[in-house]
Fold:
Amino acid sequence: STRPNSDLKGMTWNDCCLAVICDDIGNGAGICLDNDCWASVAGFQVAFINDEQGGAENRMNNNELIEQIKNPQTPLRDKIPMILDLAEQRNREIYPLILAALDSAEYAKVRGTLIYALANYPATPLFEKAIGWLIDGNFEMAHEATGILDKIEKIEGSRADKAYTALTAALNNPANEIWRIELLEEVLGMFE
Structure:
């Protein structure tokens, strides 16, 4: 649906409780209770909901978001923004759900986004998983995994030895694309 674009004069972030970004054809999550609260910003539409107009009533608390994510009836396109929001808050309850979702067929096409969400959490516990994502993951997964690995200050002992061996073996795989070779070399350089 189309929304009238209007000037935001007099409207500040303090007046709003929710900002929702939609693409130019209206895809996105959220509602707008007042069509006058739409504006165009850098090719996107941004919707603002004023507290006075019910925005506070429409916000879900974190427990409700977790339940919506767990609900198999909730469409994936609705779950992803909820997961990202909770991960940005470093919510402890969403962390194991993200890890489980990475192994779920339902989330197969958005695994890179899930790894992006994990970047909000401590990187060291994700070390072995990130090595695996780098070696076997798609383009987005491998890049997000490299970002996680870059945050790790120090890994020693058998964890480091096993990872170095796996990365070296992966680097010698003739089927690797150039982008993966570059990422593998970058991460191997971190071991020096």
User: Anything to note?
Assistant: Residues 1-59 have pLDDT under 50 and may be disordered.
